[in-house]
Each structure stands twice: as C-alpha cells, then as structure tokens.
Design goal:
alpha/beta; Rossmann fold; six-stranded parallel beta sheet; 17% strand; globular; phosphatase activity
C-alpha cells in the first residue's frame, strides 16, 4: 500500500464523547506501534477525521491543532509520523468532505497522487467504510466500542469489501501481508 488513511477517534485514540483538549487525547494500545510500522514500510500515512465540534462551538481550530501537536510529538518520539491531517469541521451531512462522503479521502488521494487501489482507509464506523468505498480505497474496519456489531450491521456491499480487525496494530499486520 502506498497510502494509509486513518480515521482518528476510535482508531488512533480512545473514543470519548469529544476529545476537546490535549489532556483528553489518549492513544489506543498498539496504535503508536502500528503507525511506526507504516512508516518503516515506507507508506504515506494520513488522517481524515470529522471534527464537527468546531462548527458546534465546542472547541476551536487552535484546540484541534494542540491535540494534533501532542499526538504527532508522541508518534515522532516512537518512530511514527503522520504525513498529512485533513478534517471536516462541519456537522452538515451534505458537506462533501464530511464522512460518509468521500471528499477528504479524494483530497488525500489527489494530494499524494495515489490511485485509490493503492490506498487503504482504516476506520471504526460504517460511515468510514462508506467514504472509503465511494473513494475506491481498500477498507479495514477496526472494532469499536460496539464490538463486532458495527461490522455485522453494515450493508452487504460494504461487508464484502471490508476486512474486520480488532485493532490498528492488527490492521498493520494485515496490510503487511497484502500483495
């Protein structure tokens, strides 16, 4: 894979109702190692995350930047990195960049000049898989707080294209074995 696109909340960090400041950001076990594995494998790694809390007034772009600065500092100290972070601040589901719409993923594919079949999108909700499907990426669903229910309740067209794993670390191992 040339490009690994990650959702953030529930994939990289523990999902809270809202992560509003750096102190609330906590990596999921194995996430740092997984992202370091992507870097070691020579993959471009990016994040595409819905952050509607900005438009809802719960926190600011500066708050989001501070959260990401903390995340990047810890990743870089442990051999990982994120090449680009894109986010959608809108809570309007008609916004083409807000997942389940594929806008942010298409933006990343164009930015890195990568074909969709050379990219994988890793998320933890059906909306992530729908965005990745519509962008033409390979799909990995990481188990979320709902257990396997998210996967089992997805429409068949998404399930057929989705690899289900327990963690981002497991996803990194799956990708390592893809042709």
């Amino acid at each position: 894979m040339k490009l690994i696109i990650l959702d953030r909340d529930g994939v990289i960090n523990k999902e809270l109702k809202w992560v509003e400041n750096p102190d609330e950001f906590e990596f999921i076990d194995g996430a740092i190692e997984a992202i370091a594995n992507f870097k070691k494998a020579g993959c471009i790694t990016a994040i595409a995350t819905n952050q509607s809390h900005i438009d809802r007034g719960r926190f600011t772009v500066a708050d989001l930047d501070a959260i990401h600065d903390k995340m990047l500092k810890e990743l870089r100290a442990n051999g990982g990195d994120i090449d680009k972070i894109v986010y959608c601040p809108s809570f309007d589901n008609n916004d083409p960049r807000r997942k389940p719409n594929p806008g942010m993923l298409l933006e990343l594919l164009a930015h890195f000049n990568v074909e969709p079949n050379e990219a994988v999108f890793i998320g933890d909700y059906e909306r992530d898989m729908q965005a990745g499907y519509d962008a033409g990426c390979r799909l990995i669903l990481v188990e979320n707080k709902h257990g396997e229910g998210e996967y089992h309740n997805m429409p068949d067209h998404l399930k057929e294209k989705t690899t289900f794993v327990k963690s981002l670390l497991e996803a990194s191992e799956v990708i390592e074995n893809w042709d």
